[in-house]
């Protein structure tokens, strides 16, 4: 089992130049669609609007990835993608805000709060998706009992003694499994982030 990331590293970004590379685009979509979707929802958009923002962001990336890659002054990819998502979300909020409902545009007042929350939402959702992707990779690489010990004690927050009884192992095994899985997830996330 390779610890290769759901790439948004340089290798994936270069592959995105080829619009026919379905595998690369699927990796990109799998990683970033949940981030874009959750961030837009936190900013108060309705589900239909969120899906429109996701599609607009993906379209914008596909149309401008070459220019971003060719720009020697470019910043981070995540920063660039975050700006696209922010702009698309603000475009939608602005369009909605300028459509008066009963002579009042209520959405207009929500725009400053949405802007200020976007950066923290984006980073939080991105880190969560990295965790999810890393956890999938680690799960494939460890024994099922090790994974269950980690999952039940860490994610489901069950007491280690209960997990040990449930799995038929010693409590120390639960702690060890939890530490090993968490360590592998952290290392994988750190590796992926350094490659970005």
Would you kindly provide a written description of the structure presented here, covering whatever features stand out?
The structure is a single chain. The chain is an all-alpha fold and 196 residues long. It folds into two domains: 1-134, RNA polymerase sigma factor, region 2, helix turn helix motif (Rna Polymerase Sigma Factor, Chain: A, Orthogonal Bundle); 142-196, Arc Repressor Mutant, subunit A. It has helices at 10-15, 22-42, 47-70, 77-97, 111-141, 144-155, 160-167, 171-195. Helix 2 (22-42) crosses helix 3 and helix 6 crosses helix 8. It is elongated and about 55 Å long.
Superfamily (CATH H level) name of the largest domain: RNA polymerase sigma factor, region 2, helix turn helix motif
User: Can you tell me the number of structural domains?
Assistant: 2
Question: Order of SSEs, N→C?
Answer: HHHHHHHH
- The pLDDT mean sits at 79
**Total DSSP helices:** 8
Give the biggest beta sheet. Answer: none
Question: How far from one another are the termini?
Answer: 21 Å
Helical residue percent band: over 70%
